[in-house]
């Protein structure tokens, strides 16, 4: 077992909040219950966290999935059921643990390499309030202006991944709606603890993420996960494949 090099006590918070989606097994109330290569996604993630020497995670799931998770996972794991959004899920997790550092990991990003998680854990120093892995944005991005479209310099843009390591007081402040002005909310209005922490003035560091750290949410990303694990072939080069439903 590899010992974590994170400063202080770290409690992993695993969020299994994604709803079922087309292409995901009918008995999977949340995508992280999908089985790949003999292991469910969330089991792969829990094994990775355990290999890093971290304490038992707190798992927070939608009410519809919590019962199934409790039945499948180690009975010693605490699985919380929540009705609500990410903000409510994180608040529920904070109520049952008192650790000074929280490692927030989306269960759907179960293929995140152990090396990325270790780098996040090792990168929180005295000058930072949080650390998050990022990947360069490769998609074409345009700014919509009254006069038309304008190219955006992608060299300054990055996509956020999991896990996110935050100091407890920083996460608590980020969860306070009064600390996050509406004009600084992330696109789409969905709560994101890193966006909220930045809006509250937190100092957030970054480490290099991984293309394996994508979220498995639907049929397409499930297929990508199968390719990543060598369980399927990449046939996207075939003519007409992109047009199929």
TrEMBL record:
User: Do you know which InterPro entries this protein is assigned to?
Assistant: IspD/TarI, Nucleotide-diphossugar_trans
The answer on whether this UniProt entry bears the keyword Transferase reads yes
Keyword Transcription belongs to the record: no
Q: Which domain of life is it from?
A: Bacteria
UniProt source species: Brachybacterium paraconglomeratum
Pfam families, per this entry?
IspD
**The entry's keywords:** Nucleotidyltransferase, Transferase
GO MF annotations, alphabetized: cytidylyltransferase activity
Identify this protein by name: 2-C-methyl-D-erythritol 4-phosphate cytidylyltransferase
